[in-house]
Amino acid sequence: MALDHLHYLLGELLLPGALPWCLQEEETMQHLLAGCSFSRQIWHETLSWVRSPADIPNSDTDFYTWWETACNRSPSSARKGLASLIILTAWWIWKHRNACIFDGEQPSTSRLSGTIRDEACMWAKAGGTGLHTIIPER
Ligand SMILES: [Zn+2]
Questions:
Q1: Which domain covers residue 41, as residue numbers?
Q2: What is the pLDDT of residues 25-81, one digit of tens each?
Q3: From the CA of 75, how far away is ligand 1's center (Å)?
Q4: Which of 62, 84, 127, 130 gives the lowest tally of CB atoms within 10 Å of its CB?
Q5: Total domains present in the chain
Q6: How far is the centre of ligand 1, averaged over its atoms, from the C-alpha of 116 (Å)?
Q7: Does the residue 17 lie in any domain?
Q8: What is the 3-state secondary structure (H, E, C) of 53-94?
Q9: For residue 15, how far is its CA from the centre of ligand 1 (angstroms)?
Q10: Confidence at 98, pLDDT banded by 50, 70, 90
């Protein structure tokens, strides 16, 4: 997902209906990615997996701003990998939301964070993402 595209989604999109795991009435991308306790749990697990010192996103900070800050505060060797991991995580939170809404899947933080780790390992093998510099050896 291109950065511009994500930024567009965050700024403009108000999603119909609520998240299947959430009592909030109006769903926004900001809530889905940064405010929701489900997603915050995913960020916590993903960022601790790579031992990132970045804070997890929160509802008070624009997600895009959080992303930039998290990357800028990381050591330069880890920056590209962290940016990739954040894109991948946001993308999979979005996909998980869709699977729960449209395919009747059950929300699961443990399954989703497992998927994100597997995908990150695959992206790392494919190269060019910087992920190999941050993900731990299996
Ligand atoms: Zn929520």
A1: 30-133
A2: 567 888 889 988 899 999 999 999 999 989 999 989 999 999 999 999 999 999 999
A3: 31
A4: 127
A5: 1
A6: 19
A7: no
A8: CCCCCCCCCCHHHHHHHHHHCCCHHHHHHHHHHHHHHHHHHH
A9: 12
A10: confident
